[in-house]
Amino acid sequence: MNKALLLMLFMVFYNGASSNGLGVGATATTARPEVVNIGAIFTFDSVIGKIAKLAIALAVEDVNSDPEILNGTKLTLKMQNTKSSDFLGIIEALQFMENDTVAIIGPQFSATAHVISHIADELKVPLLSFAATDPTLSPTQFPFLVRTTRSDLFQMTAVADLVDYYVWRDVIAIHVNDDFGRNAIAALGDTLAEKRCKISYKVPLNPKATKDEITNALISVSSMESRILILHIYTSWGLQVLTEARNLMMMASGYVWIATDWFSTIIDTDPSLPFVSTDDIQGVLTLKMYTPESELKKKFKSRWSNLTSARRVNGSSFGLNTYGLYAYDSVRHLAVALDSFFARGGNISFSTDSNLNELRGGKLNLDALKMFNGGSQLLQSILEVNTTGLIGPIKFNPDGNLINPAFEVINVIGTGTRTIGYWSNSSGLSLDPPEKPQRKLQSNGSRKFSFSTLFFSQNEKTGSTLGRFVLIIWLFVVLILNSSYIASLTSILTVEQLSSPVKGIESLATGGDPIGFLKGSFAENYLIDELNIHRSRLVPLNSPEEYEKALQDGPSAGGVAAVIDERAYMELFLSSRCGYSIVGQEFTKMGWGFAFPGDSPLAIDMSTAVLKLSEKGDLQKIHDKWLMKSACSAEGAKQAVDRLQIKSFSGLFLLSGIACFLALVLHVIRMMHKYYKRPDSDCESSQSRRLQSFVSFVNKREQEAESRPKRMRTEKASSKIVHEDSTINGLDESV
Asked: Which of 256, 387, 478, 604 is most buried (CB neighbours < 10 A)?
């Protein structure tokens, strides 16, 4: 009896000791286990998900085949399809946490991440999301959610910089009405406000929007004043929005569409898909997460192409989009962190969450959920990873974001796309990739991209060859026009002042003659209340023509002795009527202004513009051009000066046109002669191919001609550099 009791006590003590620090139902493995369980949750059939599925599988295969990454430990991956359902995402995350899963790749959608992050925080299981971009998913609120992609905070900053660069002040935001859409557009609004821009109208769309809902939303947009449209929606129905916009004539000239990276993701996934109907998307600007070129990325893209060349999913292509790169790197990132975790003595152990004890025995079996005891340590290892992947350097800053956020700015043109610039968090908009020396986009320089050049610049290279000749001819035309204008302007003299019994407002007020004023203006009350002129002496007039007739008739014939009006209107009246003049001094100094709503960004812009015009003297030039008495000559106040008309230059224009045409013909003949004298000329190819070859030949010759003087200058400058100091050397190189 005593032996049995002793044995029972020993068993109880042994069980208690073995579970010390693990809690009820705890399990444990060695520090370097043979297998580690990881999970992945996303939507398999989505544009992003179908690429991520293969990328994640390849990453696990690569990690397991490389003994140097985890030193013999293998990853066991289980993927769950959320089918675009936040509810399924929650259930599947709970299932993972019943099966000793140390980390989860995903979720894909920001709305799902908001919910699952609370579960991950409670059970200490890190989430590595390669696609949840909602800027409010901060590590402060969700410490176990590690964003292994770019936050939309940076993308919206790039959009705001683009809007500010083109000096657009009001934009319309069309967005999906969930956490992903609302929070990103809120970030855009804040960033635009810093640049004195604003979102004038927001169009939230149902996450599962129908064709009719999209059409009705776009109809409401078409009635708005702004024509700058920011489109931040899902890849699943983004192209439908652009198609409906074209049907409503909202893709025509005058509209600007800026699509966030959902659009570039579609293009990368299936390059042929968007261009089936090219009219739907011409001129659209879009952003794409920038990943620098590297040998590692090049090899993976080649491998991807070989693997997917014959693979198609639901009839669509299987191109590699940027999210596929981030999904692959997320697995590699986790593997590197696990190796560091094990190297620090971490082990894989799970215990029952004491907060779930009250739920034990329920039909949902929630007490089966296990807490990862080493979760916090693994999370720290994940955040400390410093390596290089397909996307470039992988390292987190103190805010929990990947370093070096950058985007490409892409323009859809013809049947393809072209990168017109870059944006990075460190340098803003630039012509060069972030890793190269930056050439900033200048708003008064030749490198500025206007919207028209974004759309039509495919013609620039072809036209540059012949444009030089047109420019020379027109420079000659402009020289003649400018000389004629100056000669005409200098011939205009000041009109002689006419004698008048009215010397100013004082003599007019004390007299008894009738006085004219503009009907409906403040002048009537001012003359009565301030100058005490009797109302019976005031004559309302409606137009400059009535002014002229009343002054011609004079007081004796039912007219007026003088007209009281604002200075600008008087000068405009006198600019074409030489028989009248202003007498006396101005007797009010109220000034002029432009009225805008209290929150209008145009008020500041207009005030700034007026100040700049005033500082440069342009206001006086405008005044002199439009309000000087240009119709009066020196020979007499009533004699009009002959003005230069377009027909005066008809001969000049004809001469210019003929010279331009002849120069063009001669240049084409000369180039064709040289083209066909080439030893490699192909006269038997198709007409379109010969034309394309001819244009390429002409451009090449032009480039060679341009490079020769530059090369000569460089060679001449290099001989001086030996004798110059470093400062002059730097200046010479910059020139």
From this structure: 256
